[in-house]
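To: structure desk
From: M.T.
Subject: fold request, one chain
Message: Could you run this one when you get a chance? Sequence is below, nothing fancy, just the single chain.
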Amino acid sequence: MYRKLAAAYDEILNDDTNAIAYYKKAYEIDSTNSSNLIGYVGALSEGKMFKEAKRLMESENYKSVVSENGHIRSLWYYYYLQNNKSKTIELSKNNLLTNQYFVQVLTYAQIGDRKNVDSINKLLSLIHISEPTRQAEI
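Reply: Done. Structure tokens follow.
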């Protein structure tokens, strides 16, 4: 329940302070739930609490609970929010993210590559995106 409250504060109200507080409570209740960890790291990053987010991502618990895909995506978001363009680009080229079109569009937009943003948007207008995975299906 705390994770859902955190998501509401984050995604609906754009309230990083309360999102962080509720993700922290969810994490404290169940630190083995990868959704709690990924949400908490994302909220910390959005709240510009980068040291705390990095410390959590480097913890043994995080490494044992979060999948490689979840970790790469969280790391990409962490660097994206810091406007670290070189790390963002490097991570966006990881095989686990190359078909994540939202990640690709944001990466290209961050570096001002309008041509690639338009190219991906045009491609997306021709295909259907499956919601649960956000993967492209032709």
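Reply (cont.): The beta strands are 128-130, 135-137. Let me know if you need anything else for the meeting.
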